[in-house]
Amino acid sequence: MVTMKFAQAPAEQNQALRAAEHDRSRLGVIYGLAAYCTWGSFPIFFKALHGATPLEIICHRIVWSVVFLFVLVTARRQLGQIKTTLSNRHTLLTLCGTTLLIATNWLVFIYAVQHDDVLQSSMGYFVTPLISVLLGCVFLRERLNRWQLISVLLAMIGVLNLALHHGSFPWISLVLASSFGLYGLLRKVVRVEAMVGLAVETLLLGPLSLGYLIYLATQQQNAFLAGTLRLDLLLPLSGVVTAVPLLLFVGAARRLQLTTIGFLQYITPSLHFILAIWLYNESFTQGHLLSFLFIWAGLGVYSGDALWKSRSGATQSR
Predict the structure, then answer these.
(1) Residue 49: helix, strand or coil by DSSP?
(2) What is the residue-wise DSSP string for 237-285?
(3) How many of the other CB atoms lie within 10 Å of CB of 116?
């Protein structure tokens, strides 16, 4: 009987570990869905800020993010990490670069939303993973395999087709994709925890943003506290809206495989696409359809290759 108990113990332990891992993965999926669905609904939130200029909105987003993030960082006792980050010259210079990139991304996105170009933002965030692959090849000397090269070429054909058939260069899509791709590249090489990094980034732009908001107030050109209750409530909320999905994303990234995260990230541009076509009735021509088909084909090739490599790696590790 004693022998049987010892024989059953490892099996029970393995079962408990599998159950714990299952719960961990399930919670990670919930966090990931919440993060990407929140980002996907951003056009609705920022559409509601009509009456304020994109620059004023981005300044409020930065200032209130500083306040909200420093409350969180203080609660997590990470103020020391911020001081260490600010005292490291190389890290600080890198974060200055990421700050400019993420601010550019935010500003162009808000511009796109206010100018009824949510469809371009959708395309930009669909293309972002493929831009990241290309940047890894150029700057990190990562080699593109045959399928990755095909996926990038398909996306390039889609963008070029839109430029030719739509009559204008899709600069919003390319700025969003390249700025976020470069942001991800720099954040990959700098060794800073996600929450601390974002707190430093917003802190670097905080004084300039606050100064601009004060200037608007002195010139009586401000939308905040100018008699519109809607803006008085939503503009400060923009800081919370910025930080919460990031927290959810960090929670998901710690619990899920990169392949799963890679598939979840398509939720955001898909929701932007749905909102642009069915809620905001933006123009969607045959040229748009053909471009998106090329981009979706590229993403399909890219995702299939990533999934195959993930499964091959899992099989070899057994």
Answers:
(1) coil
(2) HHHHHHHHHHHHHHHHHTTS-HHHHHHHTTHHHHHHHHIIIIIS-----
(3) 14
Cβ–Cβ < 8 Å for 28, 256 = yes
Nearest of 125, 106, 113, 118 to residue 55 by alpha carbon: 106
- Return the residue matching tokens 């917003």: 202
Written as six digits, the tokens of 207 are: 């004084």
- H helical segments located in 76-117: 79-87, 89-114
CA–CA gap between residue 140 and residue 132 (Å, rounded): 11
For residue 37, what are its two tokens? 């669905």
Q: Give whole-number Cα distances, 184 to 17, 20, 272, 309, in Å.
A: 33, 31, 21, 22
Q: What is the mean pLDDT of each run of 10 residues along the chain (318 residues)?
A: 54 66 79 92 95 94 92 90 92 94 94 94 90 84 85 89 76 92 86 86 94 95 91 93 85 74 86 95 89 92 82 59
Q: Where are the strands (E) in the chain, listed by range?
A: none
Distance CA 179, CA 98 (A): 9
Q: Please give the Cα distance from 261 to 36 (Å, whole number).
A: 10
What pTM did the predictor assign? 0.85
DSSP state of 298: H
> What are the structure tokens assigned to 52, written together?
């304020």
For residue 252, give the nearest of 28, 11, 1 by alpha carbon: 28
- Is residue 231 within 8 Å of residue 224, measured between CB atoms? yes
User: What's the distance, Cα to Cα, between the start and end of the chain in Å?
Assistant: 32
Query: Could you give the CA distance from residue 59 to residue 181 in angstroms, rounded to a whole number?
Result: 22
Please tell me the distance from the alpha carbon of residue 68 to that of residue 73, in angstroms, as a whole number.
9
Tokens of 228: 């519109």
What backbone torsions phi and psi does residue 90 show, to the nearest 5 degrees? -65, -45
Cβ atoms within 10 Å, residue 315: 8
Phi, psi angles (nearest 5°) of residue 285: -95, 180
